[in-house]
Amino acid sequence: MALNDVLDRIDTELDAATERLMDLLRIQSISTDPAFKADCDKAADWLVADLNAIGITAEKRETPGHPMVVGHVGEENADAPHVLFYGHYDVQPVDPLELWNRPPFEPQLEETPNGTVIRGRGASDDKGQLMTFVEACRAWKAVNGSLPCRITFFFEGEEESGSPSLIPFMEANAEELKADLALICDTSMVSRGVPSISSQLRGMLKDEFTIVGPRIDLHSGHYGGPGLNPLRTLSEIVASFYDNETGRVAVDGFYEGVHEVPEDQLRQWQNCGFDEAGYLNSVGYSQPHGEKAYSTLEQQWARPTLEVNGLWGGYNGAGSKTVIPSEAHCKITCRLVGDMDPDALRSKIRKHVEDRLPADASVRWNNDLEGSPAAVMNIARPEFEAARTALSDEWQREAVFCGMGGSIPIAGFFSSILGMDAMLIGFANDDDAIHSPNEKYDLKSFHKGIRSWARVLDALSRK
Amino acid sequence: MALNDVLDRIDTELDAATERLMDLLRIQSISTDPAFKADCDKAADWLVADLNAIGITAEKRETPGHPMVVGHVGEENADAPHVLFYGHYDVQPVDPLELWNRPPFEPQLEETPNGTVIRGRGASDDKGQLMTFVEACRAWKAVNGSLPCRITFFFEGEEESGSPSLIPFMEANAEELKADLALICDTSMVSRGVPSISSQLRGMLKDEFTIVGPRIDLHSGHYGGPGLNPLRTLSEIVASFYDNETGRVAVDGFYEGVHEVPEDQLRQWQNCGFDEAGYLNSVGYSQPHGEKAYSTLEQQWARPTLEVNGLWGGYNGAGSKTVIPSEAHCKITCRLVGDMDPDALRSKIRKHVEDRLPADASVRWNNDLEGSPAAVMNIARPEFEAARTALSDEWQREAVFCGMGGSIPIAGFFSSILGMDAMLIGFANDDDAIHSPNEKYDLKSFHKGIRSWARVLDALSRK
């Protein structure tokens, strides 16, 4: 059988595949830092060459920022399902460098208590994950001379710096990029060894405000007592965001558009192998701290949040300064779920703040921060069940439709710009330290990730 | 009469006195910045030379920091009262320089709606105030050949940088510095034209703490919901410091040692000419914001505070970062009154914070910050009433014993190290912009300040 031959070839070629990934990891494609612009270009060139080597038409496409890589294969086979695969070749900066146990761009295999890992910046996010798909294609092509699906490859180099070129490029090349379904490999497994398809992503609302008190910074010897201190006002407003009895956000109307998770999905989540204690303990928590009526997984995947990400004002140097500052600043983000409307929510939060301003205090808003609604995947499509079966076969463990606490705007863009559903399958683990020192990707994730995509492509071609 | 001749000479010599002050103001004696070390030295030399020119024995005395200036006059007159006069020749830094209307160390007379002012860094704090006393001595000496009191001059050059050498120097030179009473000219008048003797100064307690939540900074896509956010915890704790119904501090036992202001003193304060509306409006307040049961003046002079001077944590750069930070930081100071014990209060505040920590949060305290109790002047001493009469005569307005919201530790050191009471008389106005751009000293403050000290010295010699 063709698939079994493909899987065998993946096993025998694993060392070569790992070497290829190491090659890509050696390229310092940090997208946020202009000093690495040539490296980003080099990574794009590397990917074009690698796709070409497999027999896939591909080219580098310039943008105002770092280039895209677009490739096509199987166009002659009009009856085969047509998928687009998305990944990104850029990586996060490496600082603080002194916390790495080895140079971040000199990747190496390391033995750890959890098995062999590929250590290096980008090993997991997203070069390693991206290459699981490319290697699956390589094996299919080598064994069968062709791929089971028609495939469009779409790699960007600006994901870690806000993807400024992405929407214009997708709009300008919509016809070329359109496919039946987008595949994305940039997510984690719900727990080690449990294959996972993300069925929902939270949305995001960003806002920032400044509480203004006195006209100028005051000396607390002169105004301490009668003076209004905006740091106090800000603290009181932040405290008022929450109801500590229930753990809920206390902003009026905050939960409009939030839906309860259906019973059957909840049961699946409860049995998905999520290691709640490990997840909490690993960062120093003995218990979850969100809404008391919901489990940790629900708090993370299916409930909205209002989070303070930054708070500052007054003096923060050494020693003390008896200042009553004129201003106090606050940055917030909300994670959105269900049908929560970012614009409506922004108004509710702003009203909450404005309603609580004492006399002589005012608020100034930053109007440059955006919002995006939650995304719910169309898991009713037959491709999702086909992929789930393929993943379950590979991992010998029932694959789960899981939620995701994060926000991946690209999934929404495929829908809004290209009218395509997206399916997110990833093999990262929570301890991969993406964005942090000592990033790694389990060799098992890489190996079984390649095998998983070989099976998924096979399954999609049969559905 | 000798005093009248002295006052006349002060009037005719005002231009010369102003020129001398300008000379001193041209010296850039910024004590916090090592780049100006030679300038501090130069200011000390200038003062030694000026005292010598009057006929006063004086010398520069080295310290590990900037030098002291110590002078003596009238030692042969063992029967005369012996006063010590304290002032400081160092000044605050000048930044932001672009907000000055002229170079800060090129002083000049300027006409303003409130009369002629001497504009320049240090004009009020404290070179101008210091020179009111020196010029009074000069006039006395010129007219009468001697001074009516025995006087020790004691000038330091580190007041604006925390006076690190002061206590060791006072301890090492206690015998030399001891006098009957310390005079300090570093305070303001309660309102324009109302001569003021400070009868009480608030004390100070400084503290700083860090709320620690998760072990590391977290991504709100992974932990937003179940994650404990120390910025929220800190905000809730700061909010809990206050009772908004009454405006009081809500820390258990906070008001222990606080006494009500005696009726007669309160009546005096009510009639001291304090411009409450102007004081509040000038910084953007329409009303006082402290304890509702007390007047603005009482809130400022006679009531304790717990003030947040700095708050910071998380991300404060451009745009947004979806971080749940590991730590949140807070700097506080308390102004103390009456018999409040700084050490006991520190324990109460720390207990308040620790009692409110949720599970999985901890607190780390900075143990390097000190405290000092409030100081109540010994206004029962006859010198105080004598000085009050002298000031009333000069300003043709009854002088008042006023409170002061600030803390001047030197007054306490005279008491604790040298066993001396201190009397604080100053001629600054609230709009002098000390520590700020465009510092000035009213020419009227300078002129009548000199005349005031001439009268006070006369009155002390007769008491």
TrEMBL record, chains A, B:
GO molecular function: metal ion binding; peptidase activity
Annotated keywords: Hydrolase, Metal-binding, Protease
Boundaries of every Peptidase M20 dimerisation domain copy: 210-360
One GO process term, biological-process aspect: proteolysis
InterPro entries per record: Cyt/Met_Dipeptidase, Peptidase_M20, Peptidase_M20_dimer
Name of protein: Peptidase M20 dimerisation domain-containing protein
